[in-house]
Automatic annotation (TrEMBL):
One of its GO terms (biological process) is lipid biosynthetic process. Residues 179-307 form the Fatty acid hydroxylase domain. The lineage of its organism: Bacteria, Pseudomonadati, Pseudomonadota, Alphaproteobacteria, Rhodobacterales. This is Sterol desaturase/sphingolipid hydroxylase (Fatty acid hydroxylase superfamily). The chain crosses the membrane at residues 47-66, 78-102, 138-157, 169-191. GO terms for cellular component: membrane. Pfam families: FA_hydroxylase. It comes from Amaricoccus macauensis. One of its GO terms (molecular function) is oxidoreductase activity. It is found in: Membrane. Its main location: membrane. It comes from the Bacteria.
């Protein structure tokens, strides 16, 4: 495919799409039913349907019997860890192999023209981004994902969480299934703003932001505290009347769903004439500029809080203006502090 039909490339080889990132019409005013139904297929295909199907497959073939999950031990949690690790290796590895090892589409649709493997950086373990990201994914990410999974399944099995059957509550559970991405978006925005506060950014979130040029294995490369906050999205299903399959869907949306936002390409080519949209540009801009797009485009939280960047020149101007205003406020506060200190020292 010719990526220059969809965007442009600068002298450094960085590619940007022609169209700015569009907000989902869910909360757009005035609400347009036509726009909503035109957007709806993109809500399901391909990613959300894939993650929902993986949750159903887990429940059908992987998750142990309820009787087993009523008792905490080493056996079934270690089994789930092994399955989650294998699924992560296969799913993440497929993107890594196709796009970064074999480079089957070269740099077509790649936001950053350089590949992470070309750059050594002391911020990473062994100065290698990929090795650092892989180790953090399996040592901490899959471990905490599995721990959250085990805790929630144990709670459902023992009646500590309100377990509704699909046959008895089809409408509510269908609505809750549709809301899984919305729950994730709301949760992610809140914890993301939290870990961008100075203390937590320095000691926790900076680990993830070391990957300025993200690749598939960057998706779950986080500090353990961030992993716990991130996978905590599943705990809503301990409060809401829900079903274990939907709790699994929530976890899979977080675990496998981290890939599209970090794949580094706007489109993943499937054959010579077809490609799947990654919808990664909004989050790529967050990795590039740090203080924009704390969420994605499903709920316009960034727009409401003034941190939205859609990739357009207007978005760039808004971001720079916000930076200037913040710099001026900090300078004024420093000047006022210096004035007061000087006054106190020289009455």
């Amino acid at each position: 495919m010719d990526d220059l039909q969809f965007g442009k490339r600068n002298k450094r080889g960085d590619w940007t799409p022609n169209e700015p990132v569009a907000l989902a019409p869910l909360f757009r005013l005035p609400f347009s039913l036509r726009a909503f139904f035109a957007w709806l297929p993109h809500y399901f295909l391909p990613w959300n349907l894939l993650f929902a199907a993986s949750a159903v497959a887990y429940w059908a073939w992987i998750i142990p019997p309820v009787e087993t999950m009523r008792t905490l031990g080493w056996g079934w949690p270690l089994y789930l860890y092994a399955v989650n690790a294998l699924a992560t290796f296969l799913f993440y590895g497929a993107f890594e192999l196709n796009l970064y090892v074999l480079k089957r589409q070269d740099r077509r649709f790649k936001y950053n023209g350089r590949f992470p493997a070309e750059q050594k950086n002391k911020a990473f373990w062994f100065e290698r981004q990929n090795l650092d990201n892989i180790l953090r994914t399996f040592l901490s990410g899959v471990t905490i994902w599995t721990a959250c999974e085990v805790l929630v399944l144990w709670a459902f099995a023992n009646g500590y969480a309100p377990w509704l059957a699909f046959a008895d509550h089809p409408v509510w559970l269908a609505c809750l299934a549709l809301a899984v991405p919305v729950i994730h978006e709301f949760h992610f925005f809140c914890i993301h703003r939290l870990i961008h506060t100075p203390f937590l950014y320095r000691w926790v979130h900076s680990v993830h932001h070391n990957s300025v040029n993200p690749s598939p294995w960057s998706s779950l490369s986080m500090h353990p505290v961030e992993h716990l906050l991130y996978f905590g999205t599943v705990f809503y299903h301990l409060i809401l009347p829900s079903n274990p399959v939907l709790a699994l869907y929530q976890l899979h949306y977080a675990s496998f769903g981290a890939i599209p936002g970090h794949v580094g390409f706007d489109k993943v080519e499937v054959g010579e004439d077809h490609a799947i949209d990654s919808h990664a540009y909004a989050h790529y801009l967050h990795h590039k500029y740090f203080e924009v797009n704390y969420g994605d485009a499903l709920i316009p939280l960034d727009k409401w809080f003034g941190t939205w960047h859609d990739g357009s020149p207007e978005g760039e101007a808004r971001m720079n203006d916000r930076y200037r205003r913040r710099k001026a406020r900090l300078a004024a506060a420093a000047a006022e502090k210096a004035r007061r200190t000087g006054t106190a020292a020289n009455p």
